[in-house]
Design a protein that fits this description.
- With 397 residues, the protein is an alpha+beta fold.
- The protein contains eight helices and 22 strands.
- It has two domains: 108 residues, Immunoglobulin-like (Sandwich), CATH 2.60.40.10; 260 residues, 4-Layer Sandwich (Purple Acid Phosphatase, chain A, domain 2).
- It is globular.
- Bound molecules: fe (ii) ion.
- The site of fe (ii) ion (FE2) has 7 residues, from loops.
Length: 397
């Protein structure tokens, strides 16, 4: 039996594949590709295109610019044509900021099972110099198909979609990775809003969690990264687990105390760079909130009895000073499956905004819109009702 079985199905019509195999049926070719082209980790000079395949394949991307010129991108960072037996990835470099491109994916079986060609897909690179930005935030979908479908239908296009952790319910089965991450509920989630992923505590649970980075691209290949989208400087952080690393339920698989400390050092460095230091708006995404309504400090015995962090004190202790120094305006999180807005205070000058949970009745999404006058974050539920609206004035540099 193949090592990595695929348990999901490709949702209705989301994978556009053209038969290019002589003497074989279209179905045989459709079988090579197992997800839409997912446009991930947009940057000002590129993005990464990721898609799922069912057997060992070579893959490449054609990129068409606004004038119609087409370039073939068929090399990975080690000089190989991109290849994989479950997922293939093509990183695009050297594109122009704020420009629209079309891409289509070529997939060629390495075992003589034919080729597949996707339709053209459009996306736009990030533009740090733009006067405006708009983005969408999801969190804690936990493989809830109805919620994902309704979020996908409700949320608008944007410069990026930030999926703020807990995409899954623990990786107990290897076959859940592809359908959950690359073809969630059969929806083409990165269509017209390239995808940024922030890791949640459930995304690092289970014996197959170590494989998630094979499917998820980030701008720098790490689970913490920063980028500018118009006037908004964004820092994405990985809060890790909601219990200490040595908790028996983690089976010795996690090392977040080190990762939080590494991020603390990086945070100081990245926020000192002019494009982040001087940005009009300063936003942080991390899955576990850094503040909570009633903060209780847990002890070892509490964790042993099943308690978990409602806010990541372990992360805050590492990052707080750098966030205050940077003048971070808001930390946007999930984790608690209930919405919250804690305005900034004297001790905690950054506001804390928390989105809802996985069930359709709990689920929310946030739309961010920034221009010269304000950054407005509007949280809505799936009925379309506004749950929170938070407005920030631009900071002086
Ligand atoms: Fe969650």
């Amino acid at each position: 039996m193949k090592r990595r079985g695929f348990l999901g199905t490709v949702g209705g019509g989301t994978v556009a594949v053209t038969s290019r195999v002589s003497g074989q049926s279209g179905d045989a070719v459709v079988g090579l590709v197992n997800s839409p082209l997912v446009v991930m980790a947009p940057r000002e000079d590129g993005a990464e295109i990721v898609w799922a395949v069912t057997s060992l394949c070579k893959a490449w991307i054609e990129v068409k610019d606004e004038k119609g010129a087409i370039e073939k991108v068929a090399m990975d960072s080690h000089g190989m044509v991109p290849q994989g037996d479950e997922v293939v990835r093509v990183r695009l470099e050297g594109l122009k900021p704020g420009a629209r491109y079309e891409v289509r994916g070529h997939t060629e079986s390495s075992g003589g099972k034919g080729t597949a060609l996707t339709e053209w897909r459009s996306f736009r690179t990030l533009d740090p110099a733009a006067s405006e930005s708009s983005f969408v935030v999801w969190n804690d979908t936990h493989q809830n198909e109805e919620t994902i479908k309704r979020l996908h239908a409700a949320t608008p296009e944007g410069d990026f979609l930030l999926w703020n952790g807990d995409l899954c319910n623990d990786w107990h089965q290897e076959g859940w990775l592809v359908p959950t991450l690359l073809n969630p509920a059969g929806q083409n989630v990165s269509k017209n809003r390239p995808l940024m992923v922030v890791w949640g505590n459930h995304d690092v649970r289970g014996k197959w969690a170590y494989r998630m980075p094979e499917m998820i691209a980030t701008p720098n290949g790490r689970p913490f990264y920063a980028f500018r989208s118009g006037p908004v400087a964004v820092v994405c952080l990985h809060t890790g687990e909601d219990k200490p690393d040595d908790h028996p339920s983690f089976g010795g698989r996690v090392a977040f105390e080190k990762l939080r400390a590494e991020q603390a050092k990086w945070l100081k460095e990245v926020t000192a760079q002019p494009e982040f230091r001087d940005a009009p708006y300063r936003v942080v995404f991390c899955h576990i909130p850094l503040r909570w309504k009633k903060e209780r400090v847990l002890a070892q015995g509490d964790y042993e009895r099943g308690a978990y962090d409602s806010y990541s004190k372990m992360s805050r202790d590492e990052w707080h000073d750098a966030l205050v120094e940077w003048k971070a305006q808001v930390v946007i999180s999930g984790h608690m499956h209930q919405t919250a807005h804690l305005p900034g205070t004297k001790d905690f000058p950054y506001a804390q905004l928390v989105g809802g949970g996985p069930r359709p009745k709990q689920a929310t999404w946030i739309e961010g819109k920034a221009d010269e006058k304000a950054l407005t974050l509007t949280m809505k539920n799936l009925e379309g009702r506004e749950v929170e609206r938070v407005v920030f004035a631009p900071l002086g540099s």
